[in-house]
Amino acid sequence: MSTAFAPNSRPQGFAASSRLDRLAVRSHDLSKGNRRNVYVDNREFLVYHWSGKSSAFSPATGEQALGDDERINLGDHNCRVDVGVPYPYVAEMPSKRDGLELTAANWAKDYAFFLDHSPAEVYPDETIVGEFHWQLDEARFYKFPDEVYGLGFALRELGAGGISLAHTCPDLGIGLTLGWGGLLEKVRENRARFEGYGAADRVEYLDASEQVVLAIIRYVGRHADRAAELAAAETDPDQKRLYEKVAANCAAIATGAPATFEQAVQWIQLFQVVERINGHGNGYGRLDQLLIDFYRRDTAAGVLTREDARSLIAELFLKYGGNYFSFAGRNRELKDATNEVSWVGLEAYDMIGGYNHIGVMWHPEIDPAYYAYACDVVSRHGCGVPTLINYDVLRASELYSGYSEEDAWNVSYSGCQWYCAVGNEYSDHDLNCLVLVKPMQRAIDIAIRDGIQNFESFWRVYTEEVEKTAVALVAFKNKVYEWHPKVWPEMVTSLCMHGPIEHGRDVTDSPSVNNAFTSVNVLGVPNVVDSMFAIKKVVFEDRRFTLAQLREAMDVNWQGQEVMRQVMLNQEKFGNDLDGVDAMYVRVADQVLDTLEHKRNIKGFTFRPSLFQYMGHTYAGPMMGATPDGRRAEEPLAHGCNPMHGRNTAGITATANSLMKVDFSRFQGGSLQIELQPRFFDGKDNIGSFIEKFSRTYMAHGGVQINLNVIDLAQLQDAIVHPDKPEYQDIVVKVTGYSAHFVLLDREFQKEFVSRVNYAEV
Q: N or C terminus of the chain: which is more exposed, having fewer CB within 10 Å?
């Protein structure tokens, strides 16, 4: 795309209308009023993604909900808008009235009832509508059978876990092309085909899918009816026109395909609502590619201006800023895919700011003006938006895992640090975990028992223990996969995937989509790296202490053993561009890669590691106890593949160099998390230019993702003590892969965040 499309001025180039300002106030007030909080059961869930309490994130209400004294608040990361009361029709749910069955038909009856009894709401000032107050797991019992739970608890003892739910990337282009009426016809045509084959199970699934689509059509239609009612009663002419516009758009897209840019944005918003009612949610793909044809057609016809489009996308962001959309990247011919909507989408965020999860996918041929603008936006808003991602590494990673060229080109950043082949992959990436500290601890105990005297023998024991954990993880995940389409199908997502309707099987089932690899977040890599390097040097080479002495010191959390702790602590540490310890980083990462990629799930696909875990490091430290790297038990573990807090002392460039020594094209993510203090930029004339040069260099050398905050550390420290100060209410930070208002985070998350290395120099 020509750089002539670049904004004329910044940052003052995009003034929001008074209408958008009012919508922004409402959106931010919902977050700051604790009405968008996401909860997890407890610290065990954060570490292992398996607690035994519920089968996904902790429901806010209902029979599986936990009290505030037990559950943990991740922050304002929820699409659901809390109204403070449970779903009022729980007792009338079909599964409560007629009995719960683990079938698609039973699930669809509950979903249709739930949607039919959820309000269709239209608020003043809105052009884009759609909001929900309860998720289905607050009304329908969501729990796997006991045999799954037994495997889960046993696996947790070995150091791994992970449930499966809604972390894929549907192809919204399917729905934008067909509309709900076209999707209904597609379901019916394929059902007729399977009826001819006598495939009763597939007919049953498509019968259920029909009920889901019909419920969605009714739900969208009720938004049209509600807007028409409001329009009839409205006396203000401007607001009346808005209601009439909403009524016309929702009536049009209830069954028909979107015909305009505005209707396409509305369709996307309502799809997200009806899908996220089903679960925690997905990424939603490449927004600029989804909307570009609508944009060009409407602007050519003179019915849409760039300013109109910017405001519409801003409204989409304000409905729920946590939706993961990506921009740029490459097209099918592997040319730069930056287009007019890439600019408009980024401008929309620049105009409203705050909480958001959009990402820009860089590659060497990206429109230079667009990428410079993206980095400028990062520098001015300071909260990790947009996330900067290396498209070429994402695509190479998919190809390495076994994706086809056709599926891999349409890869999209889809959440935290995960990514998917749009519409062609089922991913439960965010909810699997392997904690490397546990196998290392077992290896120490075995080595002491067996009298091992050299590091290579110790390393072999360690690899055997990682293998043992991985084997148990495979058994557990396969049992989950066996039950998943029965317990909690993802039927709305399935409608916008390539394969499920054609196969008559849910996206969680097999055969269904082209790709169903199991991605596994690996927790504790830097701590294991630092520990193994220190053990190798201090215990086996220098013979300063024995493994037994080391174990005894860790068991008492280094009390009375400060000399030993300092010796272990003062060895080379990962993150300082030191070849010795960084070679151990490569060895540890490659070993877990080799272990997992030789395992297969029951769908026929391999396991693949991600050097990331979103928040388990905060609580894993106390759960794991002290570690051989000199870390005390009360300290968190390192975040993802970022160096342990306080240990990368050689500056940001050295940290980046250390991370890049692993080939990220063979892994499924591993973000570089950066917290920069304002004084870092003292003497630098153009902060955005610095971020651009640094990120280009990092990604040109193989880095996969950068989450970059610009934060005042002293201000955040004070915000922990004085969270009610008005000046702190709007501070948004990129926590790990997700954003949140700082003052809404759990206190332990806040403490961990401010304890990270806050770089003050290069």
A: C
Q: Count how many Cα atoms sit within 13 Å of the Cα of residue 379 in the half-sphere of its side chain.
A: 22
Round to whole Å and give the CA distance between 95 and 711. 49
- Give residue 167's pLDDT band: very low, low, confident or very high (50, 70, 90): confident
Contact (Cβ atoms closer than 8 angstroms) between residue 465 and residue 443 = yes
Give the integer Cα–Cα distance in Å for 687 and 681: 7
Nearest residue to 675 via CA among 701, 633, 642:
642
CA distance to 575, 593, 670, per residue, from 49 (Å): 27, 20, 18
CA distances from 761 to 582, 652, 676, 683, 708 (A): 22, 7, 9, 11, 15
Residues 6+ apart with CB under 8 A from 624: 435, 437, 438, 441, 524, 633, 637
At residue 688, what are phi and psi to the nearest 5 degrees?
-60, -40
From edge to edge, which strands make up the β-sheet containing 433-435? 160-161, 433-435, 518-523, 607-610
DSSP letter string, 417-479: TEEEETTSB--BGGG-EEETHHHHHHHHHHHHHHT--SHHHHHHHHHHHHHHHHHHHHHHHHH
Residue 747, C-beta contacts closer than 8 angstroms, at least 6 positions apart: 720
Percent of the chain with pLDDT over 70: 97
The 10s digit of each residue's pLDDT in 481-499 is 999 999 999 999 999 999 9
> pTM of the predicted model, to two decimals?
0.96
Which pLDDT score, from 0 to 100, does residue 416 have? 86
Cβ neighbour number for residue 557 with a 10 Å cutoff: 15
- Identify residue 499 by its one-letter amino acid code: G
b/e code 346-383 from CB counts within 10 Å (16+ = b)? bbbbbbbbbbbbbbbbbbeebbebbbbbbbbbbbebbb
- Is residue 519 within 8 A of residue 430, CB to CB? The reply is no
- DSSP classification of residue 571: S
Q: What is the mean pLDDT of residues 148-157?
A: 93
Residues with Cβ < 8 Å from 357, sequence gap 6 or more? 321, 322, 323, 324, 325, 385, 387, 415, 738, 739
Measuring CA to CA, which residue among 609, 366, 544, 484 is closest to residue 102? 484
The DSSP secondary-structure symbol of 535 reads I
pLDDT value of residue 760? 59
Mean pLDDT value across residues 62-90: 91
Dist CA 45 CA 55 (whole Å): 10
The tokens for 418 are 């995960």
DSSP code at position 169: -
* The two three-digit tokens of residue 155, written as one number: 């696996």
d(CA 158, CA 327): 40
71: its two tokens: 């559950």
User: How is the chain split among helix, strand and coil, in percent rounded to 5?
Assistant: 50, 10, 35
Report residue 758: phi and psi, to 5°: -100, 100
Residue in this structure with the two tokens 């919204």, named with its chain if needed: 172
Give DSSP secondary structure letters for 624-677. H---TTS--TTSPPP-TTSPPTTT--S-HHHHHHHHTTS-GGGSS---EEEEE-
Q: What is the C-alpha separation between 637 and 531, in angstroms, rounded?
A: 12
Spatial CA neighbour of 752 closest among 613, 652, 634, 576:
634
Encoded amino acid at 6, one letter: A
- CA–CA distance, 50 with 43 (Å, rounded to integer): 10
Q: What is the DSSP letter of 130?
A: -
8 Å CB contact between 698 and 706? yes
The b/e string for 673-694 (b: 16+ C-beta within 10 A; e otherwise) is bbbbbeebbeeeeebbebbbeb
* Distance from the Cα of residue 126 to its chain's centroid: 27
728 DSSP assignment: G
DSSP 8-state code for residue 58: P
